[in-house]
């Protein structure tokens, strides 16, 4: 099955002698450069993880707009924006502007977020769950409001004495980017939230961890989640086809540097841990010579089910090396699997 193949960067930076990203400036500028390089190599997507209060990429829209201005073809996305921290209408404004700059290439992954660097960090951003709500409920409420705004809903009563002339009727969030509403993805960890995202008409973004709901291998549980999502989508009766992405750490060992970085102490099995007091299963890292990788990846049921594969990249190793990582998968692995 042909697939879109992109990269997912966490945008780590650290003033450590071995890091190629010494500062936030390095992380941002190298993210742009890697997106440009990935487009030149023929990759399909440049996606960025968003974490607050961390030495990573925090505010995504300036970065997405800059990547959009420097590229012409590649999809540009997030994986994921934590909607507990997001004002839904500001999110819709920023997303619309960045999408227009990029010519309609944004693919925005959003979610209720992951474990945080600080306690209840969303409170510092001015957000508080309503009575009876959890922070996850608040994220979903923010999401539904953002989706309405992205759809172009007109809801705001115009001033009788506006500074500038208004179009007739109620007003919507501007700038509005047509089609962006259908390019929103939900990062789902459970089968239930995958079905919820389908009901709301969001694409599915499934990561390298999942709530352990059956004790089966990670890729099997993830494939079942994808099938549950597609079934819920069909039952909802949406008039367009959904997309599904999975993320994987995959390294083709084609030179001595690859083998030095990833060829030793390779973990061949899934890992299990506790995330937010929930038992979760984490997918393994794939690192091997191309012929071995081709055999191993052909047995990954979730990759087979997805239309988009995001390669998690070690961004602190620098743009040149990460471009090599992407190129090795595109040239030495993907064609043999029918992804290209």
UniProtKB/TrEMBL annotation:
Residue ranges constituting the Luciferase-like domain according to the UniProt record:
10-251
What are the GO MF terms of this UniProt record?
oxidoreductase activity, acting on paired donors, with incorporation or reduction of molecular oxygen
GO annotation, cellular component aspect: cytosol
Q: Name one Pfam family in it.
A: Bac_luciferase
PANTHER family for the chain = BLL6902 PROTEIN, LUCIFERASE-LIKE MONOOXYGENASE
Name of this chain's protein: LLM class flavin-dependent oxidoreductase
Organism of origin: Kocuria coralli
Output the lineage of the source organism.
Answer: Bacteria, Bacillati, Actinomycetota, Actinomycetes, Micrococcales
